[in-house]
Design brief:
Blueprint (H helix, E strand, L loop, with lengths): L1 E3 H6 L1 H9 L4 E5 L2 E6 L9 H8 L23 H9 L1
Parallel strand pairs: 1-2
Antiparallel strand pairs: 2-3
């Protein structure tokens, strides 16, 4: 589809929607094509989004809290080992 820049600016939402649908929009200035607008293809959902979409995982919107760690003191402290390693 060939559209003048003036018309494109006046109907921006309409033409962006058409580009998202897969239509190629060519913008003209003084009857010469100066730019092309193409939509971005949808991306495949992966990772956590795929698990949420499949219903395998759920999320209530909060920050993840992580696993509770039970740290027990055994042996030497890591800070002491690092200081020893640095010399």
């Amino acid at each position: 589809m060939i559209v003048s820049i003036h018309d494109f600016k006046s109907n921006l939402s309409k033409y962006v929607g058409q580009a998202q649908s897969g239509e190629l929009i060519e913008l003209t200035s003084h009857r010469k094509v100066v730019a092309r607008i193409v939509g971005v293809p949808p991306t495949d959902i992966t990772g956590v989004s795929r698990l949420l979409a499949a219903g395998i995982a759920t999320w209530q919107g909060g920050k993840p809290t992580g696993a509770l760690l039970d740290l027990q003191q055994r042996g030497r402290q890591v800070s002491a080992l690092v200081m020893e390693d640095r010399g």
